[in-house]
Design a protein that fits this description.
mainly alpha, 12 helices, elongated
Length: about 220
């Protein structure tokens, strides 16, 4: 390209960066950051400046290889450069941090994103809440759900559908009922969300079998 005096644009550079990162993901994970930053440096020599999309390509590959430290450092690099992270950047790092059981750090990253005034779409909250439920940190999932509601995003149905069965399986039926009542004030929850909880209700709370049946008919109240 240089010999032909062809100047690459951002799309071209990002495509090359993606190919390089995916290759290193398979053959040289330890070289992901160094080689990606070298490409970004060369991009600047062409007056093509990396964007959050460029960094997100790197963050995505770092997440796939579970490189928590490098992901957090890359996010900090973005903050200290002329390229501010977008909500996808925070999502990619927070997801990885939660999966590595560093829940305090994950909360900090989410709070940083909110503090920046970035508006994430539903995927940010749906995915992170699902991950937290999957690693048995329902308390953190509930905190994140409260943050989602405070931002008035709407579309909470899928979150209730994840949280209510999870909480009831853990035996906290009062909280499950509270979420059910909260949900039915504004929307209808798929009935399967409650049916999934019945078996665990009867196992952990045999005296409450009648309450389990009552739970089946909450949607008829």
């Amino acid at each position: 390209m240089k010999s032909n005096r062809v100047i690459p644009d951002l799309l071209c550079c990002n495509t090359f960066l993606r190919c390089l990162c995916e290759r290193n993901l398979s053959h040289n994970p330890s070289g992901l950051v160094l080689e990606a930053l070298n490409v970004m440096m060369e991009m600047r020599s062409y007056k093509v400046f990396p964007t959050s999309i460029s960094y997100n390509i790197l963050l995505s590959c770092l997440g796939k290889t579970r490189r928590v430290k490098e992901s957090c450092q890359t996010l900090e690099t973005m903050k200290n450069s002329a390229c501010d992270p977008d909500w996808v950047s925070y999502y990619l790092v927070a997801m990885l941090v939660f999966l590595s059981s560093r829940f305090g750090k994950g909360k900090e990253i989410v709070n940083q994103m909110i503090g920046k005034g970035l508006v994430a779409n539903h995927k940010f909250y749906y995915s992170l809440i699902g991950i937290l439920c999957g690693v048995e940190r329902v308390n953190y999932a509930l905190e994140l759900f409260e943050k989602m509601k405070r931002r008035g995003m709407g579309g909470y149905g899928p979150v209730y559908d994840v949280l209510i069965p999870k909480i009831c399986r853990g035996g906290d039926f009062e909280k499950g009922r509270e979420l059910w009542d909260e949900a039915t004030d504004t929307l209808a929850i798929p009935f399967c969300a409650i049916c999934l909880s019945l078996e665990h209700w009867t196992i952990y709370n045999q005296p409450g079998v009648s309450l389990a049946w009552e739970m089946c008919f909450w949607h008829l109240d």
